[in-house]
Amino acid sequence: MEKYYGIIAAVVVMIAAIIYCKVFVELLLDDPIEKTKEEVDKMTEGYKYSIYWRNGKREIVTGTSITDACRNAGIGAGALEAMDFFMPGSKDTHKWNKETREWDRIISNK
Question: Chain centroid to CA 42: how far?
Fold first, then answer.
């Protein structure tokens, strides 16, 4: 079985290379200049996160994950204590209540 590890590894690398090339070609063929701001926003919505801070501020960050988004925004481990919570997407889902100094969920009738 051990003699097949090299062959298996080579096949895995070839499959990864094929997938990478396919994605790269699709990106080249898909002209980003033709996209409107709304289309780009819709495409990247899954990479946006709303951070709700304990001081009543809300911030939208972008990244492939919440960790990546915080890193991209320059938010370090020390700032995590000031973060109340985060939600995926850029839609505002909570409103700051000045009396209780907490975030209240916005109920939508849509």
Answer: 12
